[in-house]
Write a structure and sequence with these properties.
Layout lengths: L12 H10 L13 H4 L3 H23 L1 E3 L2 E3 L6 H11 L2 H4 L38 H22 L5 H4 L21 E5 L2 E9 L6 E3 L2 H10 L5 E9 L8 E6 L10 E3 L4 E3 L1
Parallel strand pairs: 4-6
Antiparallel strand pairs: 1-2, 3-4, 5-9, 6-7, 8-9
Helix pairs in contact: 4-6
Length: about 270
């Protein structure tokens, strides 16, 4: 048996400088000291550098959370939601507003395809890999844009229904006086074909052909699977960064018979189609 004895000692600044010199890790030409006056550094110099680093962090955070929308970069913390709301209302293509709720996407026919022609991939991921992390503020903006598009689509489809009341998520409070609730498992609730339809919106940059369900959405969707008078649908909105390229597709309840064509991705609650 080998017995090892280890000795430790605290490293103060003076000893640490000596150790770095011996390790040849000390900057060349720099005096072997940490005393500011010997290094020719003032407190004003330190404050200047702290401010510069702080400004750089703020700028990096702004870049990460910002989104290019209709050819311009918008900051979620500075943008006016009403401006985006009106822009989507005025520019949403007729190709989108004319889509019928009762015409769901045929997933069986899409087996092995790459999705709607002409639409690219997403920074949020696709193809079965893990999606890239998106800044929380940016993710909120993406969700808001998608729900604004669905709101305008429903207004066009059901002019006699109160779509403002049908919109139940908290995004509505950004442009409407009413508050919302994100713990219901769906974003819109309407009457259609003598049934109650619950619509959950999934919004994306580009078109990754994927969406993720929360535990609340999973519970609610599964509770409606097979019911005759209550219908759950996923409204998949792609290309939210460009109003003229936005598109939406109506997907079945993942827990329904039709939803068997949705494929689980990984171990989480993420689906691809």
């Amino acid at each position: 048996m080998v017995l090892c004895t280890l000795d430790f000692m605290p490293l103060d600044e003076e000893y640490l400088v000596v150790w770095l010199l011996q390790a040849e890790a000390w900057p060349n030409g720099m005096p072997a000291t940490t005393a500011l006056e010997d290094l020719g550094i003032t407190n004003s110099d330190l404050e200047f550098e702290r401010n510069r680093e702080r400004a750089a962090r703020i700028e990096r955070d702004k870049e990460e959370r910002s989104l290019e929308f209709n050819g311009r970069l918008i900051d979620p913390k500075q943008v006016d939601p009403d401006t985006l709301w009106i822009e989507i209302k005025e520019k949403l293509p007729e190709e989108v507003t004319s889509i019928k709720l009762g015409a769901p996407l045929s997933l069986r026919d899409l087996t092995g395809t790459q999705g709607h022609a002409g639409r690219g991939s997403s920074e949020e991921g696709g193809g079965g890999g893990r999606p890239r992390k998106v800044h929380p503020d940016k993710a909120v903006l993406i969700g808001f844009l998608g729900e604004c598009a669905v709101y305008q689509w429903l207004k066009n489809q059901f002019p006699r229904q109160d779509i403002e009341a049908a919109w139940v998520s908290t995004y509505k409070s950004r442009v409407l006086p009413e508050s919302g609730n994100d713990n219901l498992g769906y974003d819109f609730k309407i009457r259609y074909r003598n049934q109650r339809w619950y619509l959950e919106v999934k919004s994306h940059i580009g078109d990754p052909r994927e969406f993720e369900l929360s535990e609340t959405e999973i519970r609610f969707a599964s509770s409606l699977a097979g019911k005759k008078w209550e219908v759950y649908r996923i409204i998949y909105v792609s290309n939210v960064q460009n109003t003229s390229a936005m598109y939406l597709e109506i997907l079945p309840n993942p827990f329904s018979k039709e939803g068997k064509w949705l494929r689980r991705v990984g171990q989480g609650l993420r689906y691809t189609f």
